[in-house]
Every structure is written in C-alpha cells, then in structure tokens.
C-alpha cells in the first residue's frame, strides 16, 4: 500500500511537471524545451509502467518518441540519435510488459538499427556499449517467448536468441581486446552465459537497462 501511495504521489508530481513543460515548449518551441517535455513523458511513462498501466505507459513513451524523432531529424547528431534509440527501447520495454511482443520486437529492432549505424560510424566505447544493450534486449525477448509470442520460461526461439547473444559476445571481445582488459572480458562472457555444445542459452537473472 505504501508503495502504491508513493507511486500515486509521484505520478501527480510528474503530471504537474508535464503541464509546465508543455507550456514552456508551446512558448519557445526550442530543442531544450522539446526534450524537457520528452523527459516528462518518459518519467510519467515509467510510473505508469510500475503501476501496470501499460496502455498509459505506451501512450507516454510514444509521445516521447515523437519528440525524439523531431530532434533526431533536425539535429542528426550522435546524441540526438542515441536519444531516439533509447526512446524506441523504452517503448519496447513497455510493450513487452503489456504483452505486445511483436510490437516490442519492432521497437527493439529500430533501436538496434540506429545504434548499429552509430557504432559503425563512430566506433566509440559508448556506442559499442549501447549496441550491446540493444542486442541483449533482442536476445532476451527471443529467449523468453516462442515465435508465436507465447511465454516459454526460457525455452523460446533459442536459435534466434543465440544469434543475438553471439553478436553481443563478439562485440564484447572486440571492445575488451582494444582495452586490453581480459578480466572484464572473461567476467562478461560468463555473464552472457552461452552454454555447452548443444548451443542452449542461459539467460541472465537480470537484464541491464
């Protein structure tokens, strides 16, 4: 009950912030105000998702995505495009939580495509890590559900999950080889958990966000 009450109070606070940022954006229309409004929708969507109001969470994240798309189209910078990829990811998380698995995968793939392109263009450590997170989500989604969207308790589309995990592992090898960080590479490889010669995959207990 206490947690529910805290979420209600937090939602009220975020709704107030949303109205303020809407007015600021209407008055100025500049990038800072636009992204402040997008942040407000993200915060509100997060609370709605915790309240298991997945339809409202989806609506908030779609508003944030729309604003991020505008910034991405206008700026075209790495920051703007990473922000757009993150918006697709947050929407994908909400859709997955609400059981809309096909739509969730579509959003994850859009985020992955943006981050893959950024990784190829920039090749920075940050871009590589963001790409790994995108691959991770796609792998976990395939791992948890079969091709028809039925939850399978880690016995979903293992072949597809393995492809995403292997790409993640290979990228991690390249990153850590460049950093001469063998210990981190070994730890992360163990964390990803590709198992034995039959190719089954052990999903991590928690997925990084």
Entry keywords:
globular; 8 helices; 209 residues; mainly alpha; disordered C terminus
Helix and strand layout, with pairings?
Layout lengths: L1 H27 L2 H20 L3 H22 L2 H20 L3 H22 L2 H20 L13 H22 L2 H11 L17
Helix pairs in contact: 1-2, 2-3, 3-4, 4-5, 5-6, 6-7, 7-8
Largest sheet: none
How would you state the average pLDDT, rounded?
82
Query: Number of helix segments?
Result: 8
Low-confidence stretches: 185-209
User: Order of SSEs, N→C?
Assistant: HHHHHHHH
Distance from N terminus to C terminus (CA atoms, Å) equals 26 Å
Q: How many DSSP-defined strands?
A: 0
Query: Structural class per helix/strand content?
Result: mainly alpha
User: What would you report as the Rg, rounded to the nearest angstrom?
Assistant: 19 Å
| Shape by Cα distribution | globular
SS strand fraction: under 5%
Helical fraction equals over 70%
Structure description:
The protein has 209 residues and is mainly α. It has eight helices and no strands. Helix 1 runs antiparallel to helix 2, helix 4 runs antiparallel to helix 5 and helix 5 packs antiparallel against helix 6. The longest helix is centred in the first third of the chain and has 27 residues. It is globular and about 45 Å long. The C terminus is likely disordered.
